[in-house]
Amino acid sequence: MDEVLSFLKSSLRDGLLPWSAQDSAARQFTLRYAEVEKIALENGLFPARYQRNRNMISTEEQLRLFNSRIAVIGCGGLGGYVIEELARLGVGQIVAIDPDIFEEHNLNRQILSYPAILGMPKVYAALERASQINPAVTVTAVQDSFCVMNGFELLAGCQVAVDALDSISYRLELAEVCNIAGIPMVHGAIGGWYGHVATQFPGETTVQQIYRHWVAGKGIEQQLGNPAFTPAVVASLEVAEVCKILLGKGELLRNRKLSIDLLAMEIHEISYAPAPAASVELVVHAA
Hints:
By secondary structure, the protein is of the alpha/beta class. The chain has 11 helices and 10 strands. It has helices at residues 2-10, 19-28, 33-42, 59-66, 77-89, 122-133, 151-154, 168-181, 206-210, 221-224, 229-247, and strands spanning 16-17, 46-47, 69-73, 93-97, 138-142, 160-163, 185-191, 194-200, 256-261, 266-271. It has an 8-stranded mixed sheet with strand order 5-4-3-6-7-8-9-10, sandwiched between helices. The relative contact order is 0.12.
């Protein structure tokens, strides 16, 4: 390690570690890119790829992001943008969970999709994309549906779960699993010109209250569809919440929902009174 560190220090340019040096170190010392980045950050060397983070995220905080493990449940419209932004932010481990393959109707809005990979599982496209934009990030691809039966195993070791689902029943299952597992959940939903974002910590019931009148079906997205821009906006807000959770900064959307209307260009905040989880009936999707 001393030899690797010495090489990295000698490669600094204007106090930053260029990607070319990380690439050379990985090849010369037969290391994974993640191992090189870890050595650099643990020794106060700031990778140049994150230099635009630098005025808001310290080296120690960048290391915290790198050491984090985030589950993204759903790799479609919302999830693709979430994974893209987490990888660019420098979150070190991403668990990408989705059972589906890309279909032609995904092409209008899902950033991971393009015609040549129609039929490819979304999670493998997520893995490929993350490795292209930030090889130091490790993506675990899980081609499966999230449910209460496998949820605890899938979220093991994760600091945050990001809801990028299109099913209310599975979304409620995710909220239940996160509550029991003690993991914060960042919830996002979209439909047409509209979307909303909320953050729920264990013991809170915001998500259950949002869907307290739900009976069956996927939700408003089925009626309104989704254009290219709505998932990008909502996913970015979700990633901002994840970043704040990991770094312990700022005000989170706890016990409140940010409601976004892109047609009228209005954003509203809706508050939800804290309630004991036992007082809310959960509708669990049958396995």
